[in-house]
Design brief:
Largest sheet of chain A: none
Mean pLDDT of chain B: 91
Low-confidence stretches of chain A: none
Low-confidence stretches of chain B: 339-345
Number of helices of chain A: 4
Oligomer: heterodimer
Helix content of chain B: 25-40%
Amino acid sequence: MNENREKLRSLLTDVLLLGDGEFRFDLKRTDVDAWDSLAVVSIAVGVEETFQYHMSAEEAAAVQGVADLMKILEGQAIRF
Amino acid sequence: MSPLLDRPPFGPRDDEALRREMAALTHFHRRACPPYAELTKGLGKPRRLEDVPFVHVGLFKQMELRSEHASVRHQRVLKSSATTSGTSSRIPLDDESSRRQARSVVAILSDFIGAEPRPLLVLDDPRSLRDGGELPARVAAALSLKAMASDLRFVLPPARPVRWDAVKAALEKSGDVLVYGLTGILWAGWAAAAIPADVRGRLAKARVTFVHSGGWKTLEAPPVTRAAFEAALLAGTGKGSQVLDYYGLVEQVGIVYPLCRADARHVPVWADVIVRDPLTLEPRRGQEGQLQLMNPLPLGAPYHSVLTEDVGVRLPDGCPCGRAGRRFQLRGRIPQAEIRGCANG
């Protein structure tokens, strides 16, 4: 796993309170109970801290799964 | 949803409507939380607001009270800051109460700082949001402003200065920003900090609203007065900038008591503050005493009526600031109460 994939896995596992082996890169918001409005904020703040990219409130609210998040970050030249 | 939330927060009070809601909520928690039912066994239906049973805030450090009901969907646990004994209060949050609590905070604070959304800068560690399903009270306080924010940035990394680059980025997008921090953090991190010249230039043209909560313990050596604190924050900020201090407890999440220019803390119509004799716990009128706080918002646990360790006095209704309704002054903490870094006025 490349470094950015590992950083993203670690961030989302923390925020979404996932257990070992529960994280998948195809996880959707509807798959995870803990992906609530607080998690949306926590992910946006965590992305800024981890990848130095500040997500707007609209961007953060529109994320429906890990793939959406990766797409946003890839748009900022962050490779996975 | 409490119908009282539909009213202006500082308009005419309807304490009979509040009593009815508090009585119904007390009944709900007695059915949904067996330890609470045991604690309040033998107490009748509250006929006055003073009769609503209270739980001492210390109990939330000793046990996690939780109300279980089909209508309650629990989320994370809200955790107070550590006390001198090393214990924290733990308050279970739930979906519906969180919605009510967010609406309450926005209504109360909007009356003081306006409702227009603006970027929110939080002087706290971004990693505080990732605490294994627990939410520190100071972060919850910051996030209670989220509904008033068009954008959100946590700008204080651990053991480092404020991220002035992030502050500047927010100021580049808007000349009107909200800044939240605990009183001590706002002092050390912002008021007493060396702000870079390019950020100072932006701040001079911006309307900055500083919102802070929590006590002044960390500002006691050397002592910092409220006037000096506010002057330091506002120095070099643009027209219309202001500082707002509010009192709130983790055990009363959703209710904040802002301090007005007449040195009074205002109570919204959907909450109440009762002053009690610290020895007999009888209600006191016109005298200083121990504060009981109540509100009809929480479903997930019986923290709708709590006896605090804080001391205050109710002031006559009607305030020189123009707000109607109930108000009080915070005077300190009861002797030998644990220092938790809050509520010493």
